[in-house]
Write a structure and sequence with these properties.
single chain, elongated, alpha+beta, two-stranded antiparallel sheet, disordered N terminus, about 400 residues
Amino acid sequence: MTARILGLAGYHWNKGLSVPVEVARNTNTCSFGVSLHRGTCNYTKHKQYYTHMDNDKTQDVRRQLLKWLQPCILVLLCVVLFLTMRINAPGSYERQAYSSLIVLLAVIDILAYWAAARQRVRLSSLLIIALSLIGSWTSIIIDSRLGLTEFFPLIYVTITVLLSGVLLPIVHTIILAAVQLMVLTYVVLHSPALMQLNWASFLSYVLIVSVLCIVANYISTHQLKSFQESSIRDHLTRLLNRRYFDATLEDQVQRGILRDFTYGVMLMDIDNFKKYNDSYGHATGDIILQRVATFLSEDLDRHAIVCRYGGDEFAIILPDTNHRQLYAVAEMLRTDVKTLDITDVCNAQDKLSLSIGLAMFPDNGETADALMEHADRNLMLAKKLGKDRVMPR
């Protein structure tokens, strides 16, 4: 179904002022939050924000990893410093160089821990990668001044790729692995001592490790995205689920309080849905749920968060709106749902209808629970008054 309700009047917040914008009916233009600049949809910002919410679990995984990784690195650096001081003679170049390097790496690790403690996961991850790069390549430089005659110091560079595969996006890992492999190749080919050794096997080893890290990064990233998607999607209707709705509504409340936003909430259910299940079977009931879900998402996905709330109930969050606009959208949905064709699974005289309860933030509540209680009371009132209606008017 073409987005039929997009002809409703929208408005755009500009420095706290709502500016009415009339939008032609049956167009693809966003009706709520229409930007006055270049005709772009201001709701894109909301969509981007919810995309960031989907990445929260990835950040949580990395945060937990960093929480354990950084102290372990610091302990290992202390052990290496102790061994360096014990093995190398006092005043020697190797002792001074490695001691200075280890202290620098410890400082970077502490900074990374500080960043992670302040929820700056990306910065913390970059600092850990920088620590690995500095540690690996500075060790190679120090050893080269002492006469680099074996491959062992060069193997350290694979640590950077391993960490990058866990902490950074796959594109960054590919770039980092490619650059390091090219530099390693240059170092080996310009070192007569290393050319006497089995340099081809060494470079093959580094290449294999890099490829495995990239593949592992790709698989883990896509598996995590799949798990995230399944955790916030209703398996039957493919709409966002109750879990996502509750988290989003709570977040919207906090954003509304901080930034003086207003938004509307709809809670609706399909009238006489039990009749369809009892008369035609649960398979038919599932088909009806899917068609109503498709109807809602096609009409509202540009400017609303549409969720299956449970059973035959659906919930919608409409950003940047007022009661008049919220009621107009709800009334349009109530009217348009009657046009859904279900004659292939039901009798011709069966027509779908919706009862809808509304709530406005902050007028009807300043907490998620208060908003949903208000919307639920209005939904119950709509059903009590005869169903197939929107309350309050």
